[in-house]
Amino acid sequence: MEKITGNLQKESIQYMEFAKNVGKIVSIQGIIHRIREMTDFAFVILRTSRDVVQCIYSPKFSNYQLDEKVQEGCSVTVTGLVVQDQTREGRYELQIHNIAILSQPAEPLPLVINKKQIDNIALDLYLNMRSVVLRNPKERAVFKLQEGIARGFREYLLKQNFTEIRTPKIVFAGAEGGANIFKLDYFGKQVFLAQSPQFYKQMMIPIYERVFEIAPVFRAEHHDTSRHLNEYISMDLEMGFINSFYDIMEIETGALKYIFELLNHEYKNELELLNVQMPNIESIPTIKFMDAKDIIIHKFKKKITDFKDFDPEEEQLLGKWAKKEFDSDFLFVTHYPSEKRPFYAMDDQNNPAYTCSFDLLFRGIEITTGGQRIHDYHSQVAKMQARGMQVAEFESYLMLHKYGVPPHGGLGLGLERITMHLLGFKNVRYASLFPRDLHRVTP
Question: How far apart (Å, rounded) are the C-alpha atoms in residues 200 and 146?
């Protein structure tokens, strides 16, 4: 009888292990990315999970004969001698002794993916061929960096005594109300896809005090723009025993510092491949909503038509202002009007027309919304009633307030949005692995 021990033994190694194996014969597995045949030798470029490895075929190295069966797209095990690359400092290559074919493609790729970047193609075709496009090293590097962003968020919060939670995505009511919510037939009963984990992360405050989640959220918005998706990944946190909503901004600033430091140290190859201009955060300036409107009016001479929110152009102007005045890629805007914030947002006791809330702008686009929540039962009920909400429909949520919860608040940070602006993309779909928007539910 065979027994499984959980110890996976692999005979092949990773490229990162080449440095300690110079002069040794090793095996490495990957997919043939490109073959460049020269007069009496050939370069066989191997694409592994994170690297592109140069292997060299020559009859001088062994008795192995390269033939037409070895083609681009083949999954292979390459065995050979590790040597230093004489033309690229700090790089290594493999002198081929043998290539074992593990699988072959049924037909050639429909796109050329072995150049530095995918040639300019229409966005629809780019997304239709997503599983092919992502084989390009530059394209896949986007989502390796996105891994680093989510990883940094998680690691930092765990170090700050947060507990990671998992909340339902099928819910009884929308956390933010309005019409932008997907309806589902749930065994004959109408339910919804979660707009956010808001209710649930608040419910966990009396239990864990500090919680976070990285998970999809759904918005049934009819936006067909370069910055909106109908399903995206939200990095949410909620924390209790806060003194004010400024505590939440401090935590987010610390998280962003940690994320960018992690990317700089452990994702250097991807940063260089994508030519990323990394922000440097010492601190993040803050400005109140109405003061920001005043700057837009007087410094940029723009006529304001909406004093309840910012339009995209206004966010861009604020981003330029923050960069010029503070050399900051980030700007916290605080004290948004109460009527534009959800019913659970705490109003400013000094001016109830505004809330103890904030948005974070990154290079002129909003990536975070957060703030302090109402923690008093009677205050929460009163605000719901003032908005014409049916309090009885939120009985399970209001247990939080009825049975006691400390002062608390939190935020939601859009993973695709921050990736988009870190990499300088013009469309958020390039920062979504398989985007879902007004027109797309495939692949």
Answer: 25
Alpha-carbon distances, residue 334 vs 105, 314, 368, 379, 417 (angstroms): 55, 15, 12, 21, 20
d(CA 367, CA 122): 26
Short-list 196, 230, 193, 183, CA closest to 438: 230
The pLDDT tens digits of the residues spanning 199-248 come to 999 999 999 999 999 999 999 988 888 889 999 999 999 999 999 999 99
Contact 32/103 with Cβ under 8 angstroms?
no
Quickly list DSSP for 325-380: HH--SEEEEE--BGGGS-TTBPEETTEEEEESEEEEEETTEEEEEEEEBP--HHHH
For tokens 């491949």, name the residue: 273
Q: Tell me how long the chain is.
A: 443
Alpha-carbon span 332 to 322, nearest angstrom: 10
Check whether the bond before 443 is cis (ω within 30° of 0).
Answer: yes
Other CB atoms closer than 10 Å to residue 212's CB: what's the count? 27
pLDDT band at 70 (very low <50, low <70, confident <90, very high): very high
Q: Alpha-carbon distance 273 to 262, whole Å? A: 17
pLDDT digits (tens, 9 = 90+) for 102-115: 999 999 999 999 98
String of DSSP letters for 223-280: --STT--SEEEEEEEEEES-SSTHHHHHHHHHHHHHHHHHHHHH-HHHHHHTT-----
